Amino acid sequence: MRSSLWRHRDFLLLWGGGSASDLGSAVSTLLIPLLAVRELGVSTFQAALLVLAQRLPGVVFSLPAGVVVDRLCKRRLMIWCELLSLLAITSVPVAAAVGRVHLWQLYLVAAVVGSLRIFFGVADQSYLPAVLAREQLVDGNAKLNATETAADAAGPALGAALASAFTVSRALAFDAFTYAVSAVTLLLMRTPDPRPDPARAAGPSVGFRAAMTEGLRYVWRDPVLRAISCCTATANLGIFAVVSLEVVYLVRGLHTPSPEVGLVLGVGVLGGFVGSLAARPLAVRVGNARVMWLSLVVCTPFALLMPLSTSGVGLVYYSLGWAIFNGGGAVYQTAQIAYRQSSVPRELLGRVNAGIRWVVWGTMPLGALLGGSLGTWLGLRGALWVATGVLACTGLWLLASPLRGWREIPEPQPA
Q1: pLDDT digits over 124-162, tens only?
Q2: Can you give the residue ranges of the Major facilitator superfamily (MFS) profile domain (predicted)?
Q3: How far is CA 168 from CA 39, 52, 164, 248, 272, in A?
Q4: 149: alpha, beta or left, given left = phi > 0 and alpha = psi -120 to 50?
Q5: What residues contact residue 176 under an 8 Å CB cut-off, 6+ apart?
């Protein structure tokens, strides 16, 4: 019987540093578009391009990141990603202090940090199986996802409070500080992270470019991983269409003050925290395979409440629909990551994670463009109806896969 994760030193360090970094990133998720909307007066489409700038690197760098992660020390790579992200975010409050923040700088910072998060995220998911045993992965992922969603819930409210106490640009210094905290906790970890042998990681006579596609080929041959990729890609398309619209919709469409914007978004994301806490007991009761599709089929249609929101008390519809959708999504996310970590051969895990990330992150910039374009053509509420309609259909991919007949995740197969 393994000891509790509450007494696992390295997991606690990884969890604590990651939680700090997640909170800072959630604060910036509100502050950067708020800075663009309130202080730079950008249009709806320009605000959507900020989301695009952050997510487009996922299309460009995900596949190379998988090969890099499988060939380098994962923890060292994560530390460098955090330090470089710190420098990029710090440039905004520095520019505000010495002159003026320009829109091009926000685009550049969003793109740089988004690129670094690709490498960090692939390394993080591939490093966790070295820290925890297979039977601890669901519990570990549930805890990591719980604090990530709690950060997403608290981040907008905290960001609004920091923006009120200081200025929006100065409040971004908080995100820079959290990257420093994450780097320090990673430095303090003791779990061995030996540098893999490139020949063993990529296979004999396999070059870098060929190795980039190995993860994609593995995912395509596995019907469950293929369904998970399509499901998550569809969800991200709708989510980022919503994210590209929500600040403009709440501020300009419903005339919501900044503190209330943070509260509405924070309460909406809080459902993800509840879902993360419920993921492990639900997986035990329902089955860690069955819970993946069941959580989405039950929860995603509630996203259709969001376009019904109005100013004042009617904002409850936005928060409630977002909360229930995020709750189901958190259960699904915890279970599907544990499936990948426990079922994929260790020597291919970085490339498989990167291949899935290339597919599912590739729809994020498309979602941002979709939201901005539909917001211009159909109006903010009409665009929100289209985006939430996409979200309501995401679970159908899993119902058409072998997952529908499984209760538990099967034992891993050899590479």
Answers
A1: 888 888 888 877 887 888 888 788 877 776 777 788 888
A2: 224-415
A3: 9, 21, 8, 16, 26
A4: alpha
A5: 24, 86, 89, 90, 93
CB atoms within 10 A of CB 165: 9
Dihedral sign for Cα 82, 63, 144, 173, please: positive
Give the angle subtended at the CA of 138 by the CAs of 192 and 227, to the nearest 5°. 110
* pLDDT tens digits, 283-295: 888 887 888 889 9
Can you say how many angstroms the Cα of residue 7 is from the centroid of all Cα atoms in its chain? 27
What is the distance of C-alpha 254 from the center of its chain? 27
- Indicate the helix (H) or strand (E) that contains 324: helix 315-343
**Token reading at 401:** 């896969």
Nearest to 11 by CA among 160, 167, 186, 161: 186
Tell me what pLDDT residue 354 has.
82
Contacts of 340 (CB under 8 A, 6+ apart): 125, 225, 228, 349, 352, 353, 356
Distance CA 281, CA 379 (A): 42
Which residue, 66, 203, 193, is CA-closest to 129? 193
pLDDT in tens, 311-351: 888 888 988 999 999 999 989 988 888 888 888 887 788 88
Longest dimension (CA), the chain: 63
What is the C-alpha to C-alpha distance for residues 275 and 319, in angstroms, rounded to an integer? 15
